[in-house]
Description:
Elements: H1 3-21, E1 24-27, E2 33-36, E3 46-49, H2 51-73
Helix pairs in contact: 1-2
Amino acid sequence: MSARDRRIVGTSILLAVIVGLFPPWGYYRSDTPAGYHFLFLPPANAIHIDVTRLVLEWILIGGIAAAVRYLWAR
């Protein structure tokens, strides 16, 4: 693995950790998002983490990293 590849992987992991520390929150009994807040300080009435949006963001980070790796190699 080259230095460029390690930089891409490291940046992707760092972004995934940041997204995990500031996950999307949602309100119970509605599909209304409550925004992004620190993991250990949730917003007032938002009790659950919107896991679907969180996983989608992680998938997008991985996809963008793969695309950058592929395009940068050419």
